[in-house]
Amino acid sequence: MQVDQAPLEEAFEATIAANDRIEPRDWMPEHYRQTLIRQVAQHAHSEIIGMQPEGNWITRAPSLRRKAVLLAKVQDEAGHGLYLYSATETLGVSRDELTRRLISGKQKYSSIFNYPTLTYADVGTIGWLVDGAAICNQVPLCRTSYGPYGRAMIRICKEESFHQRQGYELLMTMMRGTDEQRAMVQESVDRFWWPALMMFGPPDGDSPNTAQSMAWGIKRHTNDELRQRFVDMSMPQAEALGVTFPDPELKWNEERGSYDYGEPDWEEFWHVVKGNGPCNTQRVAHRKAAYDDGAWVREAASAAAARNEAEASQARVEQAPRPSLRGSDGRVETR
Amino acid sequence: MSDAHITQDTEGEHDNAYAGLLGNDAHWAFGTDFEDPLAGVDTTIPDGVDASELAQYCLMLGDDALVYAQRLSEWTSRAPDLEEDIAIANIALDLVGQARLLLARAAAADPALVPSLPEGSPVPDEDRLAYFRDAGAFRNVRLAEQPNGDFAELIARLLVMSTWRLAIFQRLVDHQDAVVAAIAAKGVKELAYHRDFAGRWFVTLARGTGESHRRLTDAMRTVWPLIPELTASTETESRVGVDPATLADEIGVVLDQVLAVAGITAPETPGLAGVRGRTGRHGMHSEALSRLLAEMQVVARAHPMGRW
Q: Which end of chain B has the smaller Cβ count within 10 Å, N or C?
């Protein structure tokens, strides 16, 4: 049966135009659904892959308080992944399917996590600059047109800003420590500054999906707008911290009321996006190993649930007390 | 969307990632600086309690938590599913919290226990104890330090560890030392959850598939030989804390109950011997501990004057 889509499309466009939310039960164009799945899944994958570079330092955290802070942070990232995979489920794709797309390389995650974490200062720098850049990207998404995504983002942004403060606070503390610690902070900031700028994506001229995403209210600002805002916000923070950014072109532009800054190495950016970054292979292999190693556990959970259900309905049928968990021959049933 | 609209949007307070970053902000989880975790608590040693023995006892319980939390935290980003990743991290976090309180209590009760660092080092006592002792000075049971193995081994070990520790903490709630009693009261709730998590998974794996059942059986053969050490008396424990020997029956009853629901039988394995009778509580560990500590302590030891 052919359904006339015109009124549906009109209602959809009207919702978008009014800055209202599209909800899972609402009709939406297939292209909108696919774009959202791609974006939300990529975001979810970024949270999950992002557990690795920082998780790399949990077992070596240099104080018990820092160990607790870092464990809690990486745990939050798993939680963010959960909310976001739940949001994609409302669009008709399961977490399991998306995980398989991630580990087969069909879907991407934020390239920043393909850079290695080499010192404990990186934990702080990731909090300050990487989470800071992520927040710049994500805060506008709290008002994104798709309801479940927007609501997940509200919670995620609150926690991200908490992480960012903790990261900055770690660097501040280290700067009050020894000369070696101060050098460690500067070296870390030098290494992460350019990759952090790249987190906003390619320059507007090279970002093919931006226009459509903005028209649909999935994306609210262009890559370059967000990048500029990030630079402007980071500069006073760097001064307060006592570190510099590795960009000789960085200077205040009175006329624009913003900082001018140099061009990131876009060749490196595309290298990393295309899979040749320092850690791409390692990150995906780690995720795949966890998924594969856990397969028997997930199967066991499903089998046990099915068995409990079957026994419960059997018991209801017989109107009898719950039977022993052992099989009729007294042995544990195994398959 | 007009430019004016964008500008208006971007100036909302939630759009500025850095708002308040430098200001005097409300409190953050785990504090913004090192704070004495026992601040405000009466740390006077009660009459009739030997301070140095109390310190040794806190070290034992603190090291169990610290070393086991270290093992659990190795699971981060490796669990079978996100829900388990989060749960395991939670358990590790609880135990790091218990370790901090107990090590701080040990240091306060007997400052002579705390390793000395160069003059002026800002490293707090709990971290001196955690990061600047060698394996032979650790007093945890050997069960805590064993390498992780697979998820079945995690669950089997967690079931035993949390059952045992919960039994101890339930008794310590009435301890003469107000600090130990308070730590125990907080820990009981946490440990009850750990045991519940482990017990549910234990039954699930036992009743799941042939493979999960086989893996669980194998795991029990690895874990069960370390149980007798948990209920072997030492003089310090019997005098100042809970005599582990008095826990054997209770732990047995709990484990039997879980095993019965799971429909699985305990392996007939003898307890793991010590060296001339010395085990974890005496500083005699398995090979795994020094390696675990080498990793855990590497950054802290490189910066004895460092601030974190």
A: N
B307 touches chain A (CB under 8 A): yes
Average pLDDT, rounded, for chain A: 91
Q: A252 forms bridges with which residues in the sheet?
A: A259
How much is the CA Rg of chain B, to the nearest whole Å? 22
Q: What number of other Cβ atoms are within 10 A of residue B308's Cβ? A: 25
Q: Is the dihedral of CA A33, A34, A37, A38 positive or negative?
A: negative
Instruction: Give the C-alpha separation, A78 to B261, whole Å.
Output: 31
Residue A280 above 70 pLDDT?
Answer: yes
For A257, B50, B184, the CA distances from B236, given in Å and listed in that order, are 69, 10, 18
Question: Is A299 close to B212, i.e. CB distance below 8 A?
Answer: yes
Partners of A253 in beta bridges: A258
Question: Which residues partner with B278 through β-bridges?
Answer: B275
Residue of A115, A75, A100, A91 whose CA lies nearest to A39: A91
In percent, how much of chain B has pLDDT > 90?
A: 85
234-273 in chain A: CB under 8 A from chain B: 234, 236-237, 240
**Facing B77 at nearest CB: one of A51, A69, A168:** A51
Which helix (H) or strand (E) covers residue B136, if one does?
A: none
A83 vs A51, A101, A155, CA distance in Å? 15, 18, 9
Would you tell me the crossing angle of helices B51-73 and B288-302 to the nearest 10 degrees?
A: 100
Name the closest residue on chain B to residue A296, using Cα atoms: B212
Torsion angles phi and psi, residue A258, rounded to 5: -150, 170
Query: What's chain B's length in residues?
Result: 308
| pLDDT of B4 above 50 | no
Q: What are the residues facing A258 on neighbouring strands? A: A253
- pLDDT of residue A310 exceeding 50, the answer is yes
Q: Is the pLDDT of residue B18 over 70?
A: no
Residue A145 contacts residue A151 (beta carbons within 8 Å): no
Distance between CA atoms of residues B20 and A230, nearest Å: 15
Tell me if B146 sits within 8 A of B272, measured CB to CB: no
Angle at A298 between CA A292 and CA A304, to 5 degrees: 150
Cα A182–A186–A188 angle (5° rounding)?
115
Which among A27, A15, A50, A30 has a CA at the least distance from the CA of A144? A15
What chain B holds in terms of domains, given with CATH numbers, is: 51-273+289-302 (1.20.1260.10)
User: Is B3 at the interface with chain A, CB within 8 A?
Assistant: no
- Name the burial class of residue B154, with classes exposed (0-12), middle (13-18) and buried (19+) by CB atoms within 10 angstroms of its CB: buried
Among B260, B261, B308, select the one facing A63 at the smallest CB separation.
B308
pLDDT, tens digit (0-9, with 9 covering 90-100), for B118-151: 999 999 999 999 999 999 999 999 999 999 999 9
